[in-house]
Amino acid sequence: MAGAAPSGVLPGRALLPARAGRGRRRAGRVRQRAARRRRGPVRPGRGRRRRPASRGDAGLVHRRRPAGAPAGHRPRPRPPRGGAVDVTTCHVWWADASTAPALGGLLDRGEQARAARLDSPDRRRFVTAHALARIVLASPTGLHPAAVRLVARCPRCGGAHGKPALPDHPRLAFSISSSGRRVVVALAQAAGVGVDVERLASARVLAAAVDDGATAAVLAPAELAAYQALPERSRHGALLRWWTRKEAILKATGDGLAVDPAAVELSAPGAPPALTGWSGPGPAPRVRLVDLDAGPGYAAALAVLGSADVSVVEHDAGPVLRAAAAARRTGPASGRRPRDGLR
User: Does a structural domain hold residue 25?
Assistant: First the structure.
């Protein structure tokens, strides 16, 4: 029939949307080429723009390990739009002391002797924390975990109870903390790192000190006023948040509790964590603070010295602890028995 479309070909009107679609795609390509000409030539190594990393408290870049990523996953910090920023990546490793494998053989003789003097729960936390520290420090130092040399020296009296350090790697800072079943190790290329975790039960002891008037050892005057203005039900959690932030800072500076925590004045627990006042020795440190999620019934905080933003990458230490235990059972060092009955 005259005017009929050949078999397999749609009438002309049906082709119009397709033509319009091709026109839109062509116009889009023209606009893209024009935009590229306005931007100038593409520099080698420059790819598609990425979304900036989310920002956490007090200017911190705070990122968790992505779901399903391996325990050793180390994402690169992503700078915000508008130019690169100085970012320090801090790796935070969490372990459960009640389920951690026996790794006392990784500790040196001094640590094993110290662990042997502790009661069972404290010994378990101590061994897990120091074994985990050696395991996570083995990779950046290129050493076997048992060969990692940790030194703790008090700057005031010279005793072996100061801030732990790696004498052969001064720019590699780390910190250890444990409470209840939780063990945490923080590691970064920074001037100083401090981490602290506490059980909520610890807040009751602190609250008793505050209620008895021993505020000089806990809260600064402005903090005490904010504490007393809180509802009764919120005080324990707020006090523990203050305490973990203060102890994290004092660990990072190396002062420890030789400096009264009341000398470290912080923002209120409900505000972004920040150092607002300092009456300790020397000038106030430049420090970045972030609250960590240690699970129900716990509070934790991280402090990193310096003015750089901080990318926090958190890891489950269970797999690496189990792998280290398996390696000690099957490897050449498996014949070395832990000293003093440590397991």
Answer: no
Q: What is the dihedral of CA 214, 180, 106, 192, to 10 degrees?
A: -50
Specify the DSSP element, H or E, that contains 121.
helix 120-141
Residue 331 has what pLDDT? 65
Task: Indicate the average pLDDT of the chain.
Answer: 77
pTM for the predicted model, two decimal places: 0.72
> Is 248 within a domain?
yes
Nearest-angstrom CA–CA distance, 314 and 298: 16
Q: What are the Cα distances from residue 317, in Å, to 15, 92, 296, 321?
A: 61, 9, 18, 6
Whether 235 shows a pLDDT value over 80: the answer reads yes
DSSP state of 16: H
Query: What is the biggest distance separating any 2 CA atoms in the chain, rounded to whole angstroms?
Result: 108
Distance (Å, whole) CA 210 – CA 22: 74
Q: What is the CATH number of the domain that holds 285?
A: 3.90.470.20
**Is residue 117, in this structure, part of any structural domain at all?**
yes
Has residue 203 been placed in a domain?
yes
Distant-in-sequence, close-in-space partners of 6: CB < 8 Å, separation ≥ 6: none
> How much helix, strand and coil, in percent to the nearest 5, is found in the chain?
40, 20, 40
Sheet of 287-292, strand order = 193-199, 298-305, 287-292
Q: Which amino acid is at 104?
A: G
Over the Cα atoms of the chain, what is R_g?
Answer: 28
User: Domain range for residue 272?
Assistant: 57-341
State pLDDT tens for residues 39-96: 554 444 343 333 333 333 343 444 454 433 444 444 444 444 444 557 899 999 999 9
Tell me the one-letter amino acid at 26. Answer: R
DSSP bridge partners of 292: 300
Instruction: Compute, in degrees rounded to 10, the torsion defined by CA atoms 278, 259, 302, 212.
Output: -90
